[in-house]
Structures are given as structure tokens and as C-alpha cells.
């Protein structure tokens, strides 16, 4: 008879952290040489310097060697908003600076960040942490509060709004609104005004109506005159005022004199002053079609006329390379800056030029032309996406193709989908699998992977059959497809590969000692 003795050959840390299995990470250098093995459930590479390791019971800030340096106390990483690490456990959310300093305990329901400020909420109670002062302060009880994009705090209570960080925190407002500029729009019983980043009034709230347009500019009306106002850290400036009507709709301001359209306005004044305008349409940001009584049509930009008004145009649109899509008798071609036809209007639709090539639609299909109007590819495509880095994407019969500048397809067979990646490379898919082509359209990896991510020529992360590995553009296997997850430390170019550590059970046979009989 024999007794079996079991020896579990495992790491001590593995036994203490993972009672059932271990997640181990292999750390490789840029030459794919194994440097060390790490035992974590997860590793998060949040930035060039911030690395976090998670076990079943703990969360750690890691040093450059991936060893625990600070216990973050939470059960999970809640959010990373540089430089703040928000962590969570059963008690609530807390905050650490990425250098490891604990700044808010794990007891809040919500934390909002802005540069060196943290706004924390527990119930209806709010606290603010200021890193410059390295101090947390109780703000008060509010129905709600938020940090604006310029670092002020707007709080609301009982239907009124307050600025608890301002010199006058008890001042109530009917409305306080944030916008893309550096100034808050404020409303009191006396009217509208503006407040700067420090919470000080730069425009007294006496304006009848005031709305934000863009940047630090505002459109207002007060005492029968229209105002264009620019914010300023000390005192706001009225940049333009008029007793004539100024309308503002869809980011378009127009001034009417004696009921007739006279001026196209910009944020702080007049963009165009012209007699005889009948219609202005904004077609994109800072681009306008302007029509006159004599039926001339021009294209206006921030710096003046992009296309001079001409009577041969029914429609005109923004272009590139000095050629602008234009319409006449329902068909499209291209005009130059003087409004002269350079490519006659013969097409159902056209695109703008990209890399001196444009798409045109004829007979319900799309083709390609050069800047002289010469046909590069006949109208045979259902869709064409513009050229970039010498190639365009085109679809036909529910397949996608890669077209070169001569209009020819690089691959004879189409793909279910093609997408561009960094460096001009292409990912393509067929039958649910993914492959890779380089910037010259050369096929590097056949469509046989579930996931492909190119980091550099000799580091392409792939996944196949639920396992991940690393291969090069030439097809050399750098790390076999044996891993559950692979991450790249962009700072050191080290490679983290996660697998599941299986404890090795060693069975040793040991004879059972027989009891001696009496007398032996």
C-alpha cells in the first residue's frame, strides 16, 4: 500500500491572491526577450507613466518595474482623468493623484475633475479639493453642482444658481450657463450679463437679451439696439451696435437696413456690406452662398469671396485646389475663383477634389476624374470615398475595393469592409475575419484573424481562436498565439502578455510504513 503526497508548485503570491487560478503576465523587451513574470488579475496602462495592477482584493499603482508602489484601496478602477485616478469600493468613490497622493477618501457618490480641482458629492453635500492649496473644503448643500469648462463651479438650490467659489458665493442668479468661451452667461431680475473665470462680473446684468455665438462673443439686444459683445477678463467690450435689425439663426447673422438685407455679419462686426443681396445661406461653418437681385451667386468665406458672384450658377459649394463644385440646369461641374466653368456641368453629383482627383456620378453610379476633367474610372461604383495617401475606397456589388490614382483596383477580389489606420495602412475584412495591407496596398496578412492592431513593422498584435500573439509584417511569429491579452507600454516599448497560470500538481509516491508486530 502507498500513500499519495500532493505538492502544489505555485508562487506564494499566487496562492494568497488567487485561490482558484492565477493570471500571470509575461514582460518582454522590444527584442522579445522575457524580462520577468508578474501576477495580477489585470494591468491597466493609463498613460506613459501611470500603470495600475489589480488583484482580486487590491488595486495598486505600479512603479516602472511593475511592482506595487501605492495601495489605491479600491476594488476597481472607476475612471482615469489625468492626473486623477478615481477608484471605487463598497463604501464609495475616492481620488488619488497619479503621483500616488490620496486626496479624497473612498466615500463619495460622484467626483468631477478639472485640472487641479475636484468636486465631490455625497448625497446633497458637496466638497471641493484644490491641489494648489492641497486642501479639501465643504461647499455646502445643493440640489446639484458642476464644474464649468473654465474651472468655476455652478451650483443650484431651490431654483436659483450660485457660484460658491466666487468672491460673492451667496449671490443668487436666475440662470448661469457655461459655453465654449471663457465667460459665463448670467441672468438676474435686472437682465443678462457676463462673469469671468474668477467669478467677477465683467458685464453688468442689465442687457435685455444675450446669447452666446462662438468663442468669447455674444449677440444681444438692449433698449432698441442690437449688440455684438466680446468678453474680456476685466470688462466686456461692445464691438458693434446698431439700431437696425440684426438676425441670428443657424450661426448666421444678417443686418437689415430699412427692411432690406444689407450686411453679412461676423462675431465682432461686418463680414460683407453689399447692396442688392436677396438671400444668404450658410452651407458650412464660415462658408455662405450669397445671391443678388440680378441672380448672380457667389461663395463667401471669412476672408472674402471664395468665388466671385456670377450669373451662370444655380448653386455653388466649398472646394479645394481652386476648383469649386457648382450647379447649372440641375447638373454639376466645377468653377474657378472667378466663377468660370473649368469642368462643364454634366454630372448628377460631384465630390470635392482630393489629391487632384474628384468623384462624379453619372447614370446612378460613381466614377473618377482628374482636375482637367479627364475620366480615370468609368461610372461603375456604388460609392467612392475620397483619395488619401494615393488611394480611394470604392464599393460595388456590396464589396469594397482599393483604387489607385489611375482608377484601377489593387485587389481583384473585393472585401466586406476596408478601413484606414495610422500610417496609411489598411484593415480589411472578409467573412468576419480581418487582414492587413500596407500603405502601398501590398497584402501583408491574409483575412484570417479576429483582431489586428499594428504598432510598428515588427509588432502586429493579432487574435485568432480567442488567443493573442505578435507577428511581424513579414509574417514572422514574435510571440505565439497563446495569450489572452497583449498590451504595449508605449514609454518603454515593453510588451505585456497575459496568460492563465495553471498550478503544477506533482504526485509523489511514498511507501506507507508497515506497523511492526509485537515480537519483531
TrEMBL record:
Protein name: WG containing repeat-containing protein
PANTHER family membership: DUF3298 DOMAIN-CONTAINING PROTEIN (PTHR37841:SF1), GLR2918 PROTEIN (PTHR37841)
Source species of the chain: Algoriphagus hitonicola
Keyword Signal set for record: yes
Pfam families: WG_beta_rep
Keywords recorded for this protein, A-Z: Signal
Residues of the signal peptide: 1-22
Amino acid at each position: 500500500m502507498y500513500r499519495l503526497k500532493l505538492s502544489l508548485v505555485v508562487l506564494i503570491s499566487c496562492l494568497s491572491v488567487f485561490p482558484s487560478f492565477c493570471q500571470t503576465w509575461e514582460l518582454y523587451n522590444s527584442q522579445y526577450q522575457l524580462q520577468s513574470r508578474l501576477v495580477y488579475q489585470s494591468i491597466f496602462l493609463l498613460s506613459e507613466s501611470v500603470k495600475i495592477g489589480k488583484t482580486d482584493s487590491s488595486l495598486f499603482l505600479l512603479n516602472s518595474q511593475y511592482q506595487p508602489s501605492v495601495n489605491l484601496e479600491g476594488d476597481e478602477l472607476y475612471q482615469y482623468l489625468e492626473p486623477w485616478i478615481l477608484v471605487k469600493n463598497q463604501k464609495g468613490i475616492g481620488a488619488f493623484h497619479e503621483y500616488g497622493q490620496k486626496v479624497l477618501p473612498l466615500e463619495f457618490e460622484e467626483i468631477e475633475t478639472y485640472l487641479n480641482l475636484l468636486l465631490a458629492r455625497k448625497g446633497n453635500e458637496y466638497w471641493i479639493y484644490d491641489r494648489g492649496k492641497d486642501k479639501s473644503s465643504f461647499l455646502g448643500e445643493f440640489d446639484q453642482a458642476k464644474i464649468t469648462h473654465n474651472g468655476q463651479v455652478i451650483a443650484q438650490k431651490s431654483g436659483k444658481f450660485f457660484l460658491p467659489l466666487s468672491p460673492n458665493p451667496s449671490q443668487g442668479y436666475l440662470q448661469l450657463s457655461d459655453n465654449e468661451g471663457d465667460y459665463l452667461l448670467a441672468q438676474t431680475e435686472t437682465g443678462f450679463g457676463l462673469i469671468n473665470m474668477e467669478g467677477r462680473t465683467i458685464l453688468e446684468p442689465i442687457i435685455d437679451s444675450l446669447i452666446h455665438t462662438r468663442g468669447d462673443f455674444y449677440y444681444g439686444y438692449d433698449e432698441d439696439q442690437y449688440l455684438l459683445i466680446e468678453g474680456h477678463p476685466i470688462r466686456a467690450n461692445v464691438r458693434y451696435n446698431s439700431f437696425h435689425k440684426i438676425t441670428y439663426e443657424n450661426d448666421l447673422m444678417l443686418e437689415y437696413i430699412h427692411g432690406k438685407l444689407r450686411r453679412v455679419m461676423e462675431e465682432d462686426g461686418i463680414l460683407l456690406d453689399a447692396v442688392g443681396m436677396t438671400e444668404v445661406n450658410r452651407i458650412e461653418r464660415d462658408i455662405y452662398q450669397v445671391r443678388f437681385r440680378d441672380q448672380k451667386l457667389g461663395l463667401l468665406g471669412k476672408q472674402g469671396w471664395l468665388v466671385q458672384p456670377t450669373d451662370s450658377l444655380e448653386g455653388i459649394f466649398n472646394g479645394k485646389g481652386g476648383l469649386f463644385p457648382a450647379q447649372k440646369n440641375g447638373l454639376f461641374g466645377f468653377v474657378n475663383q472667378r466663377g468660370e466653368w473649368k469642368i462643364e456641368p454634366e454630372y448628377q453629383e460631384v465630390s470635392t477634389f482630393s489629391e487632384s482627383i474628384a468623384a462624379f456620378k453619372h447614370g446612378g453610379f460613381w466614377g473618377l476624374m482628374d482636375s482637367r476633367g479627364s475620366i480615370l474610372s468609368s461610372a461603375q461604383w456604388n460609392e467612392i470615398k475620397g483619395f488619401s495617401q494615393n488611394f480611394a475606397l470604392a464599393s460595388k456589388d456590396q464589396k469594397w475595393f482599393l483604387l489607385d490614382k489611375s482608377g484601377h483596383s489593387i485587389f481583384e477580389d473585393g472585401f466586406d469592409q476596408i478601413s484606414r489606420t495610422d500610417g496609411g495602412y489598411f484593415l480589411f475584412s472578409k467573412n468576419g475575419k480581418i487582414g492587413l495591407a500596407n500603405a502601398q496596398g501590398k497584402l501583408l496578412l491574409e483575412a484570417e484573424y479576429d483582431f489586428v492592431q499594428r504598432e510598428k513593422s515588427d509588432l502586429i498584435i493579432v487574435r485568432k481562436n480567442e488567443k493573442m500573439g505578435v507577428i511581424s509584417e513579414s509574417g514572422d511569429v514574435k510571440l505565439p498565439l497563446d495569450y489572452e491579452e497583449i498590451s504595449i507600454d508605449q514609454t518603454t516599448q515593453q510588451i505585456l502578455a497575459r496568460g492563465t497560470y495553471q498550478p503544477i500538481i506533482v504526485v509523489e509516491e511514498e511507501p506507507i510504513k508497515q506497523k511492526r508486530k509485537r515480537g519483531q
